[in-house]
């Protein structure tokens, strides 16, 4: 369990105690949840990289008041998955982590075309799955008919 | 004097579109290759031709209505996706299915994994120019499809799992058929090894070709048999045991180098391990209910999110579900293994031969609709 504990120790130093939340029972499928600001995202990802983690999944969530980016980090250890949550406004900007994890090259392109978050410093921000001339963000809740559009605290409250 | 000699030939680069409808791309995938002679300087996979917006569809359907969608993402191992989605929702809603249902699901999922690997085995060798193994594999695979067809009612896009159980119970005929199939598959291994594994042409085509080592795999998020071929024993069934996998005795086959030959060996060994799991599950199969009563059709899981990872035929797959307490999921995200597996091609294909491209593309076993979702 070395890599996981090492990552938690260094993240705690970097972000302070309040930003980390443990899920002991692994009920939601992650062992730790880390709340992070766009400014500190790169330093957090560098810690994960140094501890041997890989970027498992990157996705966005659209709420009425904010967009949320969820990065799932994992390492080759039992039950070591961690979620990094970054809040950013609609049409906001977060730093690209492509310099640290190559797999972000495609995953950020996907998040950009579906949610309209722009990634600062991404070398090749083109459409990945959508047509090149798409000028809409399909996974935002104001596109098409969706069942509900809620504020963030209504879901996590 | 010097001007009488021919000028040195300028480096001539040209682009070649592999696909989107080339038989060896296994679906609508286009790989834009920049070539210098027969060597690849740059490979850019272009995807999205089969994008159907499953994630958006998930937001407009109840959890049960999304069930058939799950198996359409990967039509070769649909039951595994179906199984995974079912487990993710059960974890979110706190449903615990009866023991018998768990065993039935594991048996069917492993059968589906073997059928997916068999199809990969056949098509991989067909990409390399060998047609006979393809016919052998489809002959074997047909048996599995018949068994699963009888129990679930479909041959490819299964929608067999239900929240709290399975759609239909299995009977003695199913058990006999499955046992007979495993016996038959085992009797085929010597044929496969004589035909392919010991084949010197095959070995020369795949040995030391398309090496994906540990570091490359980590950077690109490669999982599944492709990662295990690099020597990392990482399998969701062992690392984060779900369902009843922790009750069975099986091994995680690994390779050493991570070349195409290792990936071939790992998958072949994995089929044998799946046979072992099925045999043990059949021996331990308990009686009782196959489905939990009183699971509401319009499930309303409590608020919150769940990230559920499982091992599909191509690697680590995961459903990320966010619930706002209504019968409709607020967000459905699927982490697909082929996404990372295909992405690493940009790195692996650099400075290889065009002929090796086909061997590499075949050996990493991608399903394009799965990436497109």
TrEMBL record, chain A:
Q: Which UniProt keywords apply?
A: NAD, Quinone, Translocase, Transport
- Gene3D superfamilies per the record? NADH:ubiquinone oxidoreductase, 30kDa subunit (3.30.460.80)
**Entry EC no(s):** 7.1.1.-
One MF annotation (Gene Ontology) recorded for this entry: NADH dehydrogenase (ubiquinone) activity
Q: Which InterPro entries does UniProt cross-reference here?
A: NADH_quin_OxRdtase_su_C/D-like, NADH_UbQ_OxRdtase_30kDa_su, NADH_UbQ_OxRdtase_CS
What reactions does this protein catalyze? a quinone + NADH + 5 H(+)(in) = a quinol + NAD(+) + 4 H(+)(out)
Q: Which PROSITE patterns match?
A: COMPLEX1_30K (PS00542)
Identify the enzyme class.
translocase
Provide the NADH:ubiquinone oxidoreductase 30kDa subunit domain boundaries: 35-144
Q: Which SUPFAM superfamilies match?
A: Nqo5-like
Q: Which PANTHER family match?
A: NADH DEHYDROGENASE [UBIQUINONE] IRON-SULFUR PROTEIN 3, MITOCHONDRIAL (PTHR10884:SF14), NADH DEHYDROGENASE UBIQUINONE IRON-SULFUR PROTEIN 3 (PTHR10884)
What is the documented function of this protein?
NDH-1 shuttles electrons from NADH, via FMN and iron-sulfur (Fe-S) centers, to quinones in the respiratory chain.
* Homology family: Belongs to the complex I 30 kDa subunit family.
Q: What is this protein called?
A: NADH-quinone oxidoreductase
What's the source species for this entry?
Answer: Desulfosoma caldarium
Automatic annotation (TrEMBL), chain B:
Entry annotated with the keyword Transport: yes
Q: What is the protein's membrane topology class?
A: Peripheral membrane protein
Domain of life, per the record?
Answer: Bacteria
GO molecular function per UniProt: NAD binding; NADH dehydrogenase (quinone) (non-electrogenic) activity; quinone binding
Q: What is its EC number?
A: 7.1.1.-
GO CC annotation: plasma membrane
InterPro entries in UniProt: NADH_Q_OxRdtase_suD, NDH1_su_D/H, NiFe-Hase_large
Q: Just give the chief location class.
A: membrane
- Which of UniProt's keywords are assigned here? Cell membrane, Membrane, NAD, Quinone, Translocase, Transport, Ubiquinone
Q: Which reaction does it catalyse?
A: a quinone + NADH + 5 H(+)(in) = a quinol + NAD(+) + 4 H(+)(out)
Q: Which PANTHER family match?
A: NADH DEHYDROGENASE [UBIQUINONE] IRON-SULFUR PROTEIN 2, MITOCHONDRIAL (PTHR11993:SF10), NADH-UBIQUINONE OXIDOREDUCTASE 49 KDA SUBUNIT (PTHR11993)
NCBIfam families the UniProt entry points to? PRK06075.1
The entry sums up its family as follows: Belongs to the complex I 49 kDa subunit family.
Can you say what this protein is called? Answer: NADH-quinone oxidoreductase subunit D
Name of the gene this protein is made from = nuoD
């Amino acid at each position: 369990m070395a890599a996981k504990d090492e990552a938690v120790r260094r993240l705690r130093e970097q972000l302070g105690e309040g930003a980390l939340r443990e899920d002991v029972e692994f009920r939601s499928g992650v062992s730790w949840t880390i709340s992070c600001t766009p400014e500190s995202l790169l330093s957090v990802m560098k810690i994960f990289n140094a501890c041997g983690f890989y970027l498992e999944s990157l996705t966005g969530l659209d709420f009425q008041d904010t967009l949320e980016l969820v990065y799932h980090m994992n390492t080759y250890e039992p039950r070591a998955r961690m979620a990094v949550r970054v809040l950013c406004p609609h049409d906001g900007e977060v730093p690209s982590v492509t310099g640290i994890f190559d797999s972000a090259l495609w995953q950020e392109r996907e998040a950009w075309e579906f949610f309209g978050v722009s990634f600062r410093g991404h070398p090749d921000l083109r459409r990945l799955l959508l047509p090149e001339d798409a000028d809409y963000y399909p996974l935002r809740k104001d596109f098409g008919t969706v069942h509900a559009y809620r504020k963030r605290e209504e879901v996590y409250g | 004097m010097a001007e009488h000699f021919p000028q040195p030939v300028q480096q001539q680069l040209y682009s070649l579109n592999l696909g989107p409808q080339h038989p060896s791309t296994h679906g609508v995938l286009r790989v834009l290759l920049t070539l210098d002679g027969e060597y690849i300087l740059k490979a850019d996979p272009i995807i999205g031709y089969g994008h159907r917006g499953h994630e958006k569809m998930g937001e407009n359907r109840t959890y049960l209505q999304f069930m058939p969608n799950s198996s359409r993402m990967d039509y070769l191992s649909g039951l595994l996706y179906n199984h995974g989605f079912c487990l993710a929702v059960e974890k979110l809603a706190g449903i615990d299915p009866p023991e018998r249902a768990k065993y039935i699901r594991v048996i069917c999922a492993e059968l589906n994994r073997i059928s997916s690997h068999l199809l990969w085995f056949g098509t991989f060798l067909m990409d390399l120019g060998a047609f006979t193994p393809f016919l052998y594999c489809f002959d074997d695979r047909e048996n599995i499809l018949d068994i699963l067809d009888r129990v679930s009612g479909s041959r490819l896009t299964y929608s067999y799992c239900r929240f709290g159980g399975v759609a239909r119970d299995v009977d003695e005929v199913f058990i006999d058929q499955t046992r007979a199939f495993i016996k038959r598959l085992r009797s085929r291994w010597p044929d496969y090894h004589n035909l392919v594994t010991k084949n010197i042409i095959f070995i020369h085509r795949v040995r030391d070709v398309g090496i994906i080592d540990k570091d490359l795999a980590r950077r690109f998020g490669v999982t599944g048999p492709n990662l295990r071929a690099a020597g990392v024993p990482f399998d969701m069934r062992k690392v984060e045991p779900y369902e009843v996998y922790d009750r069975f005795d099986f091994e995680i086959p690994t390779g050493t180098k991570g070349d195409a030959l290792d990936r071939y060996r790992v998958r072949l060994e994995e089929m044998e391990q799946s046979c072992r799991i099925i045999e043990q599950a059949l021996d331990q199969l308990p009686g009782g209910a196959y489905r939990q009563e009183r699971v509401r059709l319009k499930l309303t899981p409590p608020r919150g999110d769940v990230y559920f990872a499982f091992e599909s035929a191509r690697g680590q797959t995961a459903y990320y579900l966010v619930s706002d307490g209504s019968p409709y999921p607020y967000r459905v995200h699927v982490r697909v293994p082929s996404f990372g597996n295909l992405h690493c091609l940009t790195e692996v294909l650099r400075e290889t031969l065009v002929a090796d491209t086909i061997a590499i593309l075949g050996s990493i076993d991608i399903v394009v609709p799965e990436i497109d979702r």
